[in-house]
């Protein structure tokens, strides 16, 4: 039993880290589309082609379930993926619904961080329209943040300056929750927690995605046990240095390596 996860780069490792916590007895294959990272600044048509190319490669590796660990790729291709392949498939979407529900009682607004492509797609507008009856959701594209993450740039001074610049036109007292709508963004949770006012909560869709994966495996009759908790890394660019980067980033997320150590690798 092998569960496949893919993203354009290291962002989906935030989902993998959660999956390893929730499903420690499963074996995982993680694929990064390093030839085309980032997805969030490219055209819808290009990303769709990239996604099917990657999933075909993963199918050839014998995966039994698939997690599209990328909000942008999910928005563009999840329906077609489910039509083409018969295995369990789980996608991502920004955690707007729980954020809105959590904020209704407070009167605070919700701010969604995401890639420009995710925010431009009908799927995102449909999601927000379906849950945001009070008009409390605002959206902020952060196209540079994926590139920072891919470079393992976690210097607090650099990132604080970046976030403060992006948030300069927002009154943060008005907001109760920030949604991290790209799987790269949770790498910056700790930096954001120190930077943002203490009343603002930070949420992402990773835990919910893994819960859906576990439920879907159960529905397909696939037991939660039955593996060794191994992780195999692949990337479309066949770059050994990038494999090392993914191992470093996952170790950081799992608490076995510090952010400063990962930057010096």
Explain what this protein looks like in three dimensions.
This protein is α/β, with parallel strands linked by helices and 265 residues long. The protein folds into 2 domains: 2-92 and 206-263, Rossmann fold (3-Layer(aba) Sandwich); 96-204, 3-Layer(aba) Sandwich (Rossmann fold). Helices cover 46% and strands 17% of the residues. It has a 5-stranded parallel sheet, with helices on both faces. A 4-stranded parallel sheet has the order 6-5-7-8, sandwiched between helices. Helix 1 (13-22) crosses helix 10 (206-219) and helix 2 crosses helix 3 (71-84). The longest helix is centred in the N-terminal third of the chain and has 17 residues, at 44-60. 42% of the residues are buried. Mean pLDDT is 92; it is low at 257-265.
Notable traits:
265 residues, alpha/beta, Rossmann fold, 5-stranded parallel sheet, 4-stranded parallel sheet
Write a compact overview of the structure shown.
The chain is of the alpha/beta class and 265 residues long.
């Amino acid at each position: 039993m092998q569960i496949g996860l893919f993203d354009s780069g290291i962002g989906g490792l935030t989902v993998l880290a959660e999956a390893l916590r929730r499903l420690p007895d499963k074996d995982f294959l993680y694929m990064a589309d390093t030839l085309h990272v980032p997805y969030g600044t490219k055209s819808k048509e290009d990303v769709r082609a990239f996604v099917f190319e990657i999933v075909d490669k993963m199918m050839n590796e014998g995966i039994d379930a698939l997690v599209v660990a990328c909000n942008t790729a999910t928005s563009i291709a999840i329906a077609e993926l489910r039509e083409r392949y018969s295995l369990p498939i789980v996608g991502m979407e920004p955690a707007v619904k729980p954020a809105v529900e959590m904020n209704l009682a407070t009167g605070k607004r919700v701010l969604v961080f995401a890639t420009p492509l995710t925010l431009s797609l009908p799927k995102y507008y449909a999601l927000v329209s379906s849950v945001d009856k009070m008009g409390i959701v605002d959206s902020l594209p952060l196209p540079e943040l994926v590139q920072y993450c891919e470079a393992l740039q976690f210097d607090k001074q650099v990132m604080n300056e970046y976030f403060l610049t992006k948030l300069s036109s927002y009154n943060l007292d008005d907001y109760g929750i920030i949604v991290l709508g790209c799987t790269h963004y949770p790498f910056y949770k700790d930096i954001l927690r120190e930077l943002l006012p203490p009343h603002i909560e930070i949420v992402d869709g990773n835990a919910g995605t893994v819960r859906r994966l576990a439920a879907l495996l159960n529905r397909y009759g696939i037991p939660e046990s039955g593996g060794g908790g191994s992780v195999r890394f692949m990337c479309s660019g066949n770059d050994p240095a990038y494999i090392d980067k993914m191992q470093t980033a996952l170790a950081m997320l799992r608490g076995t390596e510090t952010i400063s150590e990962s930057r010096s690798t």
